[in-house]
Amino acid sequence: MSASETPRKPRGRQFFANPGPTNIPDSVLLATAHQTVDFNDPNFLEVYDSCVAGLKQVLRTEHEVFLYTGSGHAAWEATLVNLLSPGETVLILESGYFSDSWAQMAQDLGLEVRMVAADWRRGVDLGAVRAALADDTAQAIRAVCVVHNETATGMTIPLPEVRAALDAAGHPALLLSDTISSLGSLDYRMDEWGIDACVGGSQKGLMLPTGMSFTGVSAKAMQAHQSSRLPKHYFNWTKMLGRRHRSFVGTVPTSFFYGLQESLRLMLREEGLEQVIARHARLARAVRAAVQHWSGNDGPQLFCLNPARYSDSVTAVLMPEGHDADALRAMALQRFNLSLGGGLGPLGGKVFRIGHLGDLNEPMILGTLATVELAMRVAGVPHAPGGVDAALATLA
């Protein structure tokens, strides 16, 4: 093939192993292809109400849930502007690219940001969190922001331990969490863990197209909302509460709710939430086993070095020195029709990511791992062959 020729697209269905957006089940795709309906139609309102109730089941909350047309970033902005006032202080636990992104957003909104710095490969030290809270004798910190599952690094942060640190310090700060890449994949218990506000999105564990997000809000957070003075209009919770839908200042994206209704049916009724979480844990162990095997012969290795914090929804893989992760990803996509996630921020070209969340099973995981190993062989990336066998051993 000459340099001017366009590469031919590989035949067959693409294996999509990005950590978000994720694969959408065929039944959910079909459900979203619904005719246009009036969002105040009584039949739609039944669908809407059942979806909100199901979403609360997945969040494990009995509190208010506000929904928006927008990605997870929209939900984070909505949460910050509805809870805080100009110049107030938030404490953000560093976990990777997305914790840094929320910090930048908070600064752009006129908030003061304090960071608990962390090694991206090991995760935040809870002792440092306790120290930061103890040092805040004036209790200037109004909210502690935590990414439950850092998609960029394949690492989780134990939210119950963060809540325990707040309680032990007697600190009144709100506990805010990002559950975008953990909800519907990892265990998440908003009320039990004392989460005051959590943000989620449609395109990960909920197995929907990108474009809808939400915030779960505790009673304590709703009280804080009453005194918040950051500018808001479309995201204003008070305006939303005056509407029948208790969300959406404007048109309701009806098609999403027909898809969400089917997604919730699959998760809560057909499989069961506990089984969904167990499936994600089982498949994640298989992926990690393959990567740990590949690390022989100076091959790729798990980016996360803290086994207690391995993510069950995404695994970040650090390439050997001198080998480009993006070149490997391009090889996998162009030659074998496998789409992998890339490294974010400073990890660009150094890391590729295998998403294992949402609609997936053993054949999909094993096919992904086999193709990654094939791409490494073709690209000349050092590794210990047999990663798929290591994955099989965990699944058998």
TrEMBL record:
On the tree of life, the source organism's domain of life is Bacteria
Please give the residue ranges the record annotates as the region Disordered. 1-20
**Gene3D superfamilies in the record, alphabetically?**
Aspartate Aminotransferase, domain 1, Type I PLP-dependent aspartate aminotransferase-like (Major domain)
Per UniProt, the keywords (alphabetical) are: Aminotransferase, Pyridoxal phosphate, Transferase
Q: Which GO terms describe its biological process?
A: glycine biosynthetic process, by transamination of glyoxylate
- Matching SUPFAM superfamilies, A to Z? PLP-dependent transferases
Care to name a GO molecular-function term for this sequence? Answer: alanine-glyoxylate transaminase activity
Residue numbers of N6-(pyridoxal phosphate)lysine PTMs: 204
> Which part of the chain is the Aminotransferase class V domain?
30-330
Please give the cofactor(s) recorded in the UniProt entry for this protein.
pyridoxal 5'-phosphate
Which residues does the annotation say bind substrate?
Answer: 353
Q: Which InterPro entries match?
A: Aminotrans_V_dom, PyrdxlP-dep_Trfase, PyrdxlP-dep_Trfase_major, PyrdxlP-dep_Trfase_small, SP_NH2Trfase/AEP_transaminase
Similarity comment text for this entry: Belongs to the class-V pyridoxal-phosphate-dependent aminotransferase family.
What name does this protein carry? Aminotransferase class V-fold PLP-dependent enzyme
Q: Which organism is it from?
A: Roseicella aquatilis
